Structure formats: C-alpha cells, structure tokens
Protein: Phospholipid/cholesterol/gamma-HCH transport system ATP-binding protein
Amino acid sequence: MVAPSARSGSDAIIQVRNLTNQFGAHVVHKNLNLDVYRGEILGVVGGSGTGKSVLLRSIVGLQKPAQGTVHIFGQDALAASPDQRSAMERRFGVLFQSGALFSSLTVTENIAMPLMEHAGMSRPEAEHLAGLKIALAGLRAEAGQQYPASLSGGMVKRAALARALALDPEILFLDEPTAGLDPIGAGAFDQLILTLRDALGLTVFLVTHDLDTLYTICDRVAVLSDKKVLVADTLQVVEAADDAWVHDYFHGPRGRAAQKAAKPAQESK
Ligand SMILES: Nc1ncnc2c1ncn2[C@@H]1O[C@H](COP(=O)(O)OP(=O)(O)OP(=O)(O)O)[C@@H](O)[C@H]1O
Structure:
C-alpha cells in the first residue's frame, strides 16, 4: 500500500470535491473534499448526524448534492448519462445498515437478482453463481434456501454482503456493517472484510462507529466534523488531531480499549 503522504488526488478511485448537501435550511456538508484510494479500507467516522450516511449516499448516487462533484473511476458520476451511470454502478456494491434484502425472496434469489438483471444471466446460471457468493461471504450453503426473516443478524449482514459482491465489484460501500452484531460476530465480520479486500483487491468505503473495526482493519480514517472532513489519514495521525470529538472518541475508555486490543495484531504485521 502506498503511504498516504505519497499519494495525490489523481490516484483516487473516488474523488469528492466541494460537496454541499442540505435538507431545507439544514446544511449537512459544506464544500467537503475527500479522496479514496484504490485498494484501501477507509473508515468514515464522526458524531451522530455529521452526515456519514448522506456522504455515502451522495457517492453511490442515492442523494443528489446541492453542489460539488463526485468522480468515481475517473468519471464524473453526477454528469453521467443513465447508461454510463448504470455501467459505473455495476462496478460497486453497497451494503446498507439494514441489509435491505427483499423479504419475499430467499437469500439465493436475492443474490441472483442483480446477476439476472445486470449481467443478463439465466436463472440457473445466476443461482449457481449466487451459491459461490454465499460461500465467499462465509455462509453455509443451506442459508441460500432461507428467507431473510429466518436469519440471525450476523447472517443477514453476510447475505447482504454476498449480494453486494454479486457483480464482482471493485468498490464496496458498507454502512455500519457491524452495528447490532455481538463482539465476536463483529470481529469475524471485520476479518471477512479484510480477507475479501486482500483476496479480491477491493477498495472499501466503510461508515462505522465501531472502534475495533477502525483499529483492526482500516488503512485510513476520515473524520467528519463541522460539515467537512476534518482529517483523513492513518489512525496515528487522526488520533493526534486537535479536536474535542476526536479526543473524546479515540482517547476515551472505549478508544483506549480498542487500541490496546489491536496492538498485538499490529505488532505482528
Ligand atoms: N432524507 C433526508 N431528509 C432530511 N434530512 C435528512 C435526510 N437524510 C439525512 N438527513 C439529516 O442529515 C443529517 C446527517 O444524517 P446522516 O444519516 O448522514 O448522519 P450520520 O452521520 O450517518 O449519523 P448516525 O451516525 O447517527 O447514523 C442528519 O441530521 C439527518 O437528520
């Protein structure tokens, strides 16, 4: 991985410039800038309501910003034609916090759907490939026949991850993937993301509140504060930022515990 200081905006797979988002009079982002580099796992953190999910939604095209530009794969995502947009969307996968699976479809059908719709596969081909994605996400094959309502929280996340991976994306967007999981399940999910990034060469944009996730798998962390990205750098740099929220978050009891727990893993790298 290239050292953060050696990279420039032109190396970015996602480039956000002067982004402004507002709902009525409520300004969420004002002239926000962010680069995401190919192959990294970027953790996006910030207090509640700082606009982490809105930023993710702006990048994936679900929220039209008031101003600014978003380039993905070097293409202007906001100016793209519907065809260009759909070609771009095929190159990234999104895992929403709720999983957003269709409740009336089995796990296999949920994963097969984008393959039939966007890759033009027949149902048997799509369902066969869905089985491979189910295994990739660490689920047993039997989970494919289950409906979302019968899955545990951790299984829902993995099924949603399998669907996000359906079209072999280059970028994976994850909105609070470990929220609601017990610590063991959350740790296992973090390791799965890390393994998939390494094996598939994914770029990961990860919105999280989970300090353990930041310390165990993120290459860089972007902190949202006061409508902007306050800092986006390695944890070492971010932890030292002169900001009250950063101080409370990273140097409070939970931050210290996560740092301590991650130390043996970092030392063995
Ligand atoms: N569709 C919408 N209409 C109006 N306001 C919205 C809409 N979506 C988000 N907001 C507001 O934008 C702000 C940022 O929301 P967002 O969900 O991005 O925060 P967040 O940083 O992800 O928060 P959390 O950590 O609590 O999930 C919030 O004040 C929210 O109420």
In short: The longest helix spans residues 183-200. The chain has ten helices and ten strands.
